[in-house]
Design goal:
This protein has 14 helices and no strands. The chain is an all-alpha fold. It has one domain: ABC transporter involved in vitamin B12 uptake, BtuC, CATH 1.10.3470.10. α2 runs antiparallel to α3, α6 packs antiparallel against α11 and α10 packs across α11. It is globular.
Amino acid sequence: MDITVNILLTVATAATPLLIAAIGELVVERSGVLNLGVEGMMIMGAVGGFGAGYLTGSPWIGLLAAIAMGALFSLLFAIMTLSLATNQVATGLSLTLLGLGLSGMMGTNFVGQPGQRLPNLDIPGLTSIPVVGRLLFGQDPIFYISIALTAAVMWFLFKTRKGLTLRSIGDSHSSAHALGIQVIRYRYLSVVFGGACAGLAGGHLSLVYTPQWVENMTAGRGWIALALVVFASWRPWRVLAGAYIFGAVWIGQLHAQAFGIPVPSQMLSSLPYLATIVVLVLISRNKRLTMMNTPASLGQPFVPDR
């Protein structure tokens, strides 16, 4: 039973950064913007969070720094694509490359240094409950933030007027603009929110998952988060389910290596990425479902009439 609980705990820890990054990107894409720079924002959040935590001795300051770093990096993307109307795909890819290179330079002095780890929640009388105690009441704070964030985004998008406005912009920015909706403002806020989420996801990696700085420590999680949004058909609750499925695959390959399964370690390490490809292929076969939920203005530049 202890082994099972430990595996479930590690699955939740592995799924949390995927969930947070994907939820942020879902809001961005619902507004009609395609940001492929999630990986770059995550790695900048990771190095910013670790650096601030290491220099101040406070993981909470590190967490705030990670969020701020992701938001600032996404603001660069917003200025380029929304104000200057550059190509969203090319700008997002450039943002990822910039983030990977810049984070490596910023983190040079942090390699091998001890990190600050966010403490797990400990509620007397609840955390000690057999099996469910540690799973429900003994997780790290970002785990609970990820669940609350998913519920909040679901409520915002489908239960509020502003959420309806955001979705209408993603479906037809021209029609929304004709109705007097400030399309660029909504998209700016959405992109910055997505960047803050990506930064928080990166901070989870360097402050919880592995409290240290390692170059390229995101290891493609930003790309998996992008795939999760498509896998979930732009629905928050499906993102939650998908994140934990991918988290289980990620942890499963690690445990398979630990148990000495006679399969090359390189093959086991590639399982999360192979699973991503398989899922995307399966989704692409159902074109009706994909077209029905895809924001119609996704990736299209918008320049308001002056």
